[in-house]
Design a protein that fits this description.
By secondary structure, the chain is α/β, with parallel strands linked by helices. The chain has a single domain, classed as Alpha-Beta Complex (Protein-Tyrosine Phosphatase, Chain A). The chain has nine helices and five strands, in the order ββαββαααβααααα. The chain has a five-stranded mixed sheet with strand order 1-2-5-3-4. A hairpin with a 2-residue loop joins strand 1 and strand 2. The longest helix has 22 residues. The chain is globular and about 45 Å long.
Length: about 230
């Protein structure tokens, strides 16, 4: 997506999009997103992550008029049950299933935010726009009936997108680094397969309903995510 300032912003399915930190968007970028129908932004980060940086653009409050921001974290930072498997943060699709099964109530809140969104498009975002948003995006693609290759491709686009950001702007900390294509390509093949395995083992619709979502709520997400799958 070409919203000004947006980093790693992609179409997921139907009226659902994903991206990195919303604080990267400029005033123009917010107007462009609004013009594209965005009315709800679901922030998957813990509230303490949602801090403005000195390098972020100045955006007046009015720029977000008509857009609701909903904060629904997908994890509990520092939880030893989480860090024992995922490490200090989620950065590998091999850990998505553990994350979802550890916090089913959090994912129900995420999907209720999507199901209850105001009429219009929804953007889900985390920090880099790769793993937390990738996990939820894959679940939405699962609900939309996307084939394996489209789900794997969704992860690959986001991983390449943030990798390019690291090339031009540098990584945010020492645990991340830019990867050249010789190193990145086989990693994406492996991780793309892991994303597909995650959603096929999970069965998103069954998981959500087993954890308290109604059929109408799930149907609302399926309707939002309905649309042609790019070839």
């Amino acid at each position: 997506m070409g919203w000004d300032g947006a980093v790693n912003a992609w179409h997921v399915a139907g009226s659902v999009y994903r991206m990195g930190r919303r604080e990267w968007l400029t005033e123009t970028g917010w107007r462009q997103a609004y013009d594209d129908g965005v009315r709800t932004v679901v922030d998957l980060r813990h509230p303490r992550e949602a801090l403005r940086r000195d390098t972020d653009p100045e955006v007046p409050d009015g720029a977000l008029s008509g857009v609701e921001i909903v904060v629904t974290p997908t994890e509990e930072p520092g939880d030893p049950r989480f860090t024992a498997v995922c490490g200090p943060y989620l950065n590998d699709p091999a850990h998505y299933l553990h994350n979802v099964r550890l916090y089913p109530e959090k994912f129900v809140e995420v999907f209720r935010a999507v199901a209850g969104a105001a009429p219009g498009a929804v953007v889900i975002h985390c920090a880099a726009g790769r793993d937390r948003s990738g996990m939820v995006a894959a679940m939405i693609q699962d609900l939309a009936g996307h084939p394996d290759h489209a789900i794997a491709d969704g992860y690959a686009k986001a991983a390449r997108g943030i990798n390019e950001r690291y090339r031009t702007q540098g990584p945010p900390h020492a645990r991340e680094r830019y990867l050249d294509d010789a190193e990145l390509a086989p990693l994406l093949e492996e991780r793309g397969q892991a994303v597909v395995k995650f959603v096929r083992e999970l069965n998103t619709r069954a998981f959500l309903m087993e954890n308290g979502m109604s059929g109408n709520e799930v149907a609302a997400i399926e309707h939002l995510a309905a649309g042609r799958v790019p070839l």
